[in-house]
Write a structure and sequence with these properties.
The complex is a heterodimer.
Chain A lengths: L10 H13 L2 H32 L6 H18 L1 H4 L4 H31 L6 H23 L4 E2 L9 E4 L2 E4 H23 L1 H11 L1 H6 L4 H27 L1 E2 L3 H16 L4 H21 L4 H15 L12
Antiparallel strand pairs in A: 1-4, 2-3
Helix pairs in contact in A: 1-2, 1-12, 2-7, 2-8, 2-10, 2-11, 2-12, 3-5, 3-6, 3-10, 3-11, 5-10, 7-8, 8-10, 11-12, 11-13, 12-13
Chain B lengths: L5 H4 L8 H20 L3 H24 L9 H19 L3 H26 L4 H21 L1 H4 L5 E2 L24 H24 L2 H11 L1 H7 L3 H27 L1 E2 L1 H4 L2 H14 L4 H28 L6 H5 L4 H15 L3 H7 L2 H4 L7 H12 L4
Antiparallel strand pairs in B: 1-2
Helix pairs in contact in B: 3-8, 3-11, 3-13, 3-14, 4-5, 4-11, 5-6, 5-11, 8-11, 9-10, 9-11, 13-14, 13-16, 13-17, 14-17
The chains are: A mainly alpha, B mainly alpha.
């Protein structure tokens, strides 16, 4: 993300302003905006890993949705096993359950990501067509395996008491869970930012995204770095799955592939390989979806495609393309 | 042409293998005589599906095998064709004019949509195209179920065809070779004629100078651009052509089923079927789609029965019946698909066309060779 280019940032206030004019009711507008930003942060959690994976090794994983679903279902299993503790009024106890669920989801999604990479992605480095085909196959097989393990019927997830309900600040009711989702997303962004700017690994990843051959020429094994990034990306997708599952409160096996579509839109809007772009794109998509479903529910899904179309008209590579390769 | 010029009919794109030629002739002959030879409704419906999916998969092959791009919106155009006929016949009444109006509108809409998709996604990099078409196909499924006033929602549309095509129409008073010639039989042969025409038309396209440019783009985009062919324009045109053929195969589906619904035309399962057929048959060979559709649809028709039987037989072992259940058909399809992409990239046509000497090479081909072959067949989508 180049430092001087701030124009795309103006999109967010422009979009919010237009929506304010269309909605006309400040309280509804604020509620929708907050919901949209929270949704955006969850999408960002998933999209950030994927965009880096693409930027680093030119690998586009159409099977990312599987890891979202795995994360969501693993957390649901933990919640079901510890449901007694989850409903406890003590935030510490319920919070611990949530942490456990997140840990299970992150580890489970990361491990399955490692297997996925070894079995499916590794043989097709450098060939987009093959990657698209093979990872799509992986998505279908993964989804079916999830159906075998957890069944096809929908699973309900309940929020613990300390995350349900809303806090009212100056007439605006903000659901607690949205604040929580925002904080988790912000934490992910912050830790990514710190890893990328303060550690040598992060430096290598950024350099690899920009110019892989050069980093390899300097003697660093981009391949191993890439596997680590891929696994981290899958783990992040698992985390996003937990957050999305709690947001929706019902899980179906298709949850990941549905989310995948939004994530793709975000990555295209943000520019392949750019974390900052993914954050901006995710928030744009989140608020846009919420405004649209309030103004005209039937066009909600198309609002994102329309948004993407307009942004691609303006910048065909997305807002902040990070990769030197075109 | 005084005599029928076979070489021109197939655009001088010879099957290249005697076995393949015999296979193709057998498929066409089989489809031609099926209504007389086969009695079961299931067998006939598999035959019709073969005709429809041969066109649908061949049109997808225009993109995957000849242009080197992967579209996930192919079912959208298939759906536009199916719904176009369905909506026109329900709204305007079951007449030939409304059928024609529906087909024309559907084709125009497909051209327009394919142009717009191409303009937005093929401009920068081919991979955007795959991502955007995936989003679009999800949106189309939602749209078809949401606009229930027009599309019948989840249930879809059941409609009547123009009177001559309905099963109760008697076209001949006496039986012909033991078969009552009714509207259903006419419909069958109409679909067969459409299918053969469209497959031959696609052969014509890929063997034209235009098709050669597409191949050049698939193999080396940069070089094609350098020689002076605008890659973006050619890819977009190829996308439009593929969309039109997919749309017509949707029309064929509607004619046969007298039904248009989201699961029959827009679902991701259909997309996977198309991918499977193209890979099994052989990427970059229009003939592959015909052979692949035949092999795949016959297998699908009867494997699902086999799964049902083995699932019923395996109740002793808990868990296994889950894996073998016919509901888990997609699991096996997905696994088969991945294996086919890795180990069978040239498909049936590729295997049949391989020189006989190479087939007997000792110990199979090494992995490196296999990947070189994959690259040659699939091209690189940079």
């Amino acid at each position: 993300m180049s430092r001087s280019d701030l124009t795309p940032l103006a999109l967010l206030p422009v979009l919010m302003g237009c929506a304010y004019l269309a909605i006309g009711n400040p309280i509804a507008w604020l509620t929708l905006t907050i919901a949209g930003v929270a949704m955006g942060m969850i999408i960002f959690t998933i999209a950030s890993g994927m965009t880096i994976v693409f930027g680093l090794m030119d690998v586009l994983n159409f099977g990312q949705g599987v890891f979202i679903t795995i994360g969501a279902y693993l957390s649901a299993t933990v919640f079901a096993a510890l449901s007694g503790h989850l409903v406890s009024p003590d935030p510490g106890e319920a919070g611990l359950v949530i942490l456990l669920a997140i840990a299970a989801a992150v580890v489970g999604a990361g491990l399955s990501g490692l297997i996925f990479e070894r079995l499916l992605v590794e043989p097709v480095y450098g060939d987009h067509l093959m990657q698209i085909l093979v990872t799509t196959g992986g998505l279908i097989v993964g989804e079916e395996i999830i159906k075998i393990i957890w069944g096809v019927q929908q699973v309900n997830v309940t929020l613990p008491p300390f995350l349900s309900g809303a806090v009212v600040i100056a007439d605006v009711a903000i659901e607690r869970y949205r604040i929580f989702a925002f904080m988790v997303g912000a934490l992910v962004f912050l830790s990514q930012y710190l890893v990328f700017t303060r550690t040598k690994t992060g430096l290598l990843i950024r350099a690899g995204v920009h110019d892989r051959e050069m980093v390899e020429a300097l003697g660093y094994g981009v391949r191993r770095l890439f596997v680590a990034t891929f696994v981290a990306g899958c783990a992040l997708a698992g985390l996003g799955g937990v957050m999305w599952g709690l947001y929706q409160q019902t899980l179906v096996p298709q949850i990941g592939s549905q989310m995948n579509v939004l994530v793709f839109i975000v990555i295209i809007i943000g520019g392949l390989g750019s974390t900052g772009g993914a954050l901006l794109g995710a928030i744009l998509v989140g608020v846009c979806a919420n405004y649209a479903s309030f103004i005209e529910p039937k066009v909600a899904l198309f609002s994102n495609i329309a948004l993407m179309t307009m942004i691609l008209l303006w910048r065909p590579n997305g807002l902040y393309p990070a990769s030197a390769r075109s | 042409m005084t005599t029928l010029d076979w070489a021109r009919l197939i655009s001088k794109d010879r099957p290249g293998s005697r076995v393949l030629a015999i296979l193709l002739i057998a498929i066409v002959a089989g489809l031609l005589f099926a209504p007389f030879a086969l009695t079961g409704a299931k067998a006939i419906s598999i035959c019709v599906k073969i005709m429809i999916f041969a066109v649908l998969a061949a049109s997808f092959d225009l993109l995957l095998g000849y242009t080197g791009i992967v579209s996930f919106a192919h079912t959208v155009f298939f759906g536009i064709g199916a719904y176009g006929v369905g909506i026109a016949l329900t709204r305007l009444g079951a007449s030939w004019t409304s059928l024609a109006a529906g087909i024309l509108t559907a084709i125009l809409l497909s051209i327009l949509l394919a142009l717009v998709i191409g303009l937005f996604s093929l401009r920068v990099r081919a991979i955007f195209f795959s991502m955007i078409t995936l989003a679009l196909s999800a949106a189309a499924q939602t749209l078809a179920t949401q606009l229930s006033g027009l599309t019948g929602g989840e249930d879809g549309l059941v409609f009547r065809l123009p009177p001559g095509l309905m099963p109760n129409a008697r076209l001949l008073d006496s039986k012909l070779l033991g078969l009552t010639i009714d509207g259903k039989v006419l419909c069958y042969y109409l679909i067969l004629a459409m299918s053969v025409t469209f497959v031959l038309a696609m052969l014509r396209i890929v063997n034209s100078p235009f098709g050669r440019v597409l191949l050049a783009i698939r193999d080396n985009e940069f070089r094609a651009e350098a020689i002076g062919y605008p890659v973006f324009v050619f890819r977009t045109l190829s996308n439009v052509a593929a969309a039109v053929f997919a749309c017509t195969s949707g029309v064929m589906l509607s004619l046969w089923l007298r039904y248009a619904g989201p699961d029959a035309s827009l679902s991701f399962e259909i997309m996977l079927d198309i991918l499977m057929i193209v890979i099994i048959g052989g990427v970059g060979t229009i003939y592959g789609s015909v052979v692949g559709a035949t092999a795949f649809l016959i297998a699908q028709g009867y494997l699902q029965d086999l799964l049902k039987a083995s699932s019923a037989a395996s109740h002793i072992l808990p868990g296994i019946d889950q894996v073998l259940s016919p509901d888990r058909w997609m699991l096996w399809l997905g696994l088969l698909f991945i294996l086919a992409v890795y180990y069978f990239p040239a498909g049936l046509v590729g295997v049949l066309r391989r020189p006989a000497g190479k087939l007997n090479a000792k110990g199979g081909r090494p992995a490196k060779d296999r990947f070189i072959m994959i690259y040659r067949w699939m091209g690189r989508a940079r």
